[in-house]
Amino acid sequence: MKIDGVPYRSVWVDPEDGWSVRILDQTRLPWAVEILRLTDEKQVAQAIKSMQVRGAPLIGAVAAYGLALALRRDSSDAALEAVAAMLGKTRPTAINLRWALARMLDALRPVAAERRVDAAYAAAAAIAEDDVETCRRIGEHGLPLLQAIAARKPGKPINVLTHCNTGWIATVDYGTALSVVYQAHDAGLPVHVWVDETRPRNQGSALTAWELGKHGVPHTVIADNAGGHLMQHGEVDIVLVGTDRVTRQGDVANKIGTYLKALAARDNDVPFWVALPHSTLDMSVRDGVREIPIEERDPREVLETTGQTWDGRVETVRVAAPGSAGLNPAFDVTPARLVTGLITERGRCDASEAGLLGLYPEFAAPAAAA
């Protein structure tokens, strides 16, 4: 994707030195575009924990490069295993992180220590390229959904409701749910996006709105609680969200508040579609509500908010009453029964074990015990 006409990906190896890793500091968006240089695994871990880098697919790709950075200093078996374990603990809910690190370990364990650095960079690059192509295909498979809506209401905008950020800065490029939107916009469809603010970190109003604006997609930022009202009044044609983990039976873990959108969509007969790459599937889990670990973040994210003052300063202020406690679960789980369908790089399917196995028959073996 592009920022002011300049093409970017969300992670890349610095072409000047050929080994350090560059990312956009997403805690600075939308107020400033700042590029961070990561030189070791500790910086990578901190960038993931602090959400300087975020989005399930991107976290996996950056962690893969973090392992490559660590092996520059120590490429022994012990270091390989220890760094992978450390990086794997940075975020508990998004399965893409574990998937990427497992793929790196599978590629690197058989390689002699003296050749591991080059092999690690090659394996991390392969993960990044896989994500780019996967997200492009997700957009292709989701596009017919918006084309069908356009055919039913010629000349009128296609109103998409989204939650959190599912665009190119949440992946290596293209995005998941927003890949559908971008490809529809580029195909000339009159798409308009209702952008949930996505409290408490405001990934919608800060990141999704910034992305859509840079790409020229019409959009409107709304309060998180406005979606149901818009659905009641026929102002939402489709809900498109991403996910951090999808279970064997089609339950979907996503940013907190997604479950409420799904309930409102079901009550108003609005289709609720979830876009995901293969790296987000966790076929070892069946019941998402009971089995998926939900990350709890610092309560201050709920009690405070960060924004830009009228004179251009970026400041954090408290918004809750003094003395109030805060609770900050970062994700919730939407049961498969509320999901219209899943959009993957292999096509669309029902949110069910049968639907998933129809696209991914290699997972037909019974799920492992939790």
UniProtKB/TrEMBL annotation:
UniProt-annotated catalytic positions: D244
GO MF annotation, one: S-methyl-5-thioribose-1-phosphate isomerase activity
PANTHER family attached to this UniProt entry: METHYLTHIORIBOSE-1-PHOSPHATE ISOMERASE
Name of this protein: Methylthioribose-1-phosphate isomerase
UniProt keywords, alphabetically: Amino-acid biosynthesis, Isomerase, Methionine biosynthesis
Organism: Teichococcus oryzae
Site (Transition state stabilizer) residue list: C164
Reaction(s) catalysed (UniProt annotation): 5-(methylsulfanyl)-alpha-D-ribose 1-phosphate = 5-(methylsulfanyl)-D-ribulose 1-phosphate; 5-deoxy-alpha-D-ribose 1-phosphate = 5-deoxy-D-ribulose 1-phosphate
Gene: mtnA
Superkingdom, natural source: Bacteria
Residues where substrate binds: R54, G55, A56, R91, Q203, N254, K255
GO BP terms: L-methionine salvage from methylthioadenosine
Homology family: Belongs to the EIF-2B alpha/beta/delta subunits family. MtnA subfamily.
